[in-house]
Amino acid sequence: MSNETLEQLANAQAIYLDALAKEALRLAKALPDPAFDPQGRLLIDVQLNDEQIGNVVEKINEKNKTTYSPDRKGLQTAIGRKLTGTTTISLDCKLDETLQQKYIDKLVKIDAKLPANILHGLQVIPQNSIIALQQEFHFHLGLVRRVYETLPQFQGKNLELAYQDTLKAVNQLVLQAFVAALRSSKNIHELNEQLDKARADILPQAHTLLMQEIIKKTHVVLNEGDFKNLNDKVNARAKETSATVNDVVHLNVQEGLITFIAGEKSTSHASKANTEFAHRQMITHFLDAEGGVRPHSSPRIQIRTPSPVLKKGLPSDSAYIADVAVKLGTIAANYSLTERIKGIPVEERDKPAAFIYNSYTAINDKIGDVGGNLQTQSAYHILKGAHQYNAAQLKNKKPVLCFVQNISVNGFGDTLGYQSRNNLVIESTLMTELALLHTLYNILPPEQQAKALAVFDYYKTYLNSGNLDSFFSKSVEGSLAITTIKELKLTWQKSLGQNAIKSDPEQVQENAQLGLQQLMAYDLHFLHDFSMLIQALSVFVEQTSLGGCKSGNERSQAVNGRVAILDSQLSVPNAATPIKKFLLALAQANKAPRTESVMLKHALDREYNKCNLYGAASLISLIDQGGSAKVEAKPGHPFYVSRNFAEANASVMTNLQQSQAAEMQAHKGMPKMIEGAWQGHPKSWWQRMKSSPLGLAGAILGVVTVIPAFIVLGYNLVKNYRGKKATQTSNEAYASSSESDLESSGASSGSDSSESRVPLLAQARGLPASAPIHYPSPLHHKASRPTKADDPTDNDDLSL
Questions:
Q1: Domain ranges across the chain
Q2: CB-CB contact of 443 with 499 (8 Å)
């Protein structure tokens, strides 16, 4: 791998992403019947041909003054990573007026009486906080298809056509649910409540549709006996198979961002010893309203990762620790960090080359540990593994260290601080402060840089001592490092604010660094209240970051989604925003900046809730586990038992609606749903009890009064038996019929067939299948993206 600077890589990446986006737009405009997502986006698979790749490389060579060969190998070298042959593009249809009109036409075809103000509102509200229901099913069913393809009954059978036909049929269900939700919702909060319910309603139907298409294409029928032998295989394959191996690119016109997410075969829930684990690179650049791509002004290497440590299966602590060291070495090698972490300015020449592992997991969260997450054990192994990796790196000519910044973002477990009596907490505190020092080094004056270098030297002495059995914080060098860091923070408290007098709101990157320094100076990184803010600011300004939690999905999504909001502040220069305002206030604070920190935190939370909840960062969970992350916002009271919190208070995160997300995940409800499709989706007695209009209360009342419970028990047995028999009969009919037979009987595949199987809202209302109605609402194209200063959408009102 050659030694391009991050700026050269960014130039090459932007040119490549620009070519992908333009090809996706060309293909989308040619689609006869696009399957729109509620967000107004399309999923398009793009394969650049040899001529297109050659043109991309020629543009890169011209821009960077390089001489790469005009082929795929040259492209990958210029980009700085391997690329998949097919790239899945999540295309924002705000880029094209024709596609926007087709999107509106699709909705009107389902309900011709949708008010024009609702349709207009869809074009100006921030749609990336609407649940992307079609996108979710695209990846969910993609994973289900890949699971089927691993089963012996389908070996050698290509299920792609069955998958594509199912997506067309499912799109009818999705848009029905979306239109119904639009009718009954005043804002995105209410809309997402309805779409969250639609997840559960559509899920079994989607599995049934895919099953039917598979039978029609293969004439293979699975029976109950097959699943007795396949259950373990289905469960295992679902957990270890990603929804797609393709690279995925997400376009977001509203925020002015285009994000590349690297393809990966393995998943976060298929942890293995040695080098294999499901890390994914995220590359973000700027997207203008016309679809052009510009390189990020402060490019970084950003990697999302699940925990680089196994919870069980190895013989000893030393084996777990060694495995962490191997995985960190894999990161350094795979991303060519020895070559990439360079180009440091002269004043930084003695700063150690390093990447930061931003760990978002809790320490000493007793409930979580007892429940099996073992995050405290993992934190211990990760810190020890990082020391072992770093000690080995110091023997190389060009060492690249790893500093672990372990700040829990979900409010569980112990906070950091040297006052703790827990050795793991003290070690985590010291290593977190080393990580922050490394991130802040270039904004320090020379005399403070000298002290920071002394801290790094203390750490190197510890690593070279060969005595890694005890923590760094318990060594003589560790004590000296702690003292030096405390002295530095006292110095900062006396001088901070003065450093930013000449700063202005447009210096977003610099203000983020100064703000991070303020937070560290006053030990606000020791508090749960500011953990999300600190981790988001850190990833935003770090040159190279590895970020993740246990699975690398829920908490990583929350952090990376906020990082994208910070990126968006750079994408629109000279526009006043609350985030820029409060970043500057934090940077210029001349006393403990608690108020400024709270204001910035709230501004970032509000913007994320309003504009980016289901943006690019949320795609990783869909790709990794076939379902949306089950992240939750904390209720406004202390009486809760869920451990899935990784968000701010529910009163702030109003648009986050994830109560039905788990059923779509590979390691949760997916295997049961796969089998259920072949059995007519039987319901449990308790599910049937809760299905009455009285819900849970009615179920409890039925149990208390006994007789209704027995009636439902008998009814449920009969209902499940009949459903199973009906499914088996129809499956045999599908298997014994040819495709032409099915078409003539009105049960053909594709979008047309869905009308015979699934009652559409349009049919139920007797709407004609005529040309779609055009509403006289303005369809903004090149000027559709409002500036941050005059954004009219702060209330998410659908009736704009």
A1: 247-663, 683-722
A2: yes
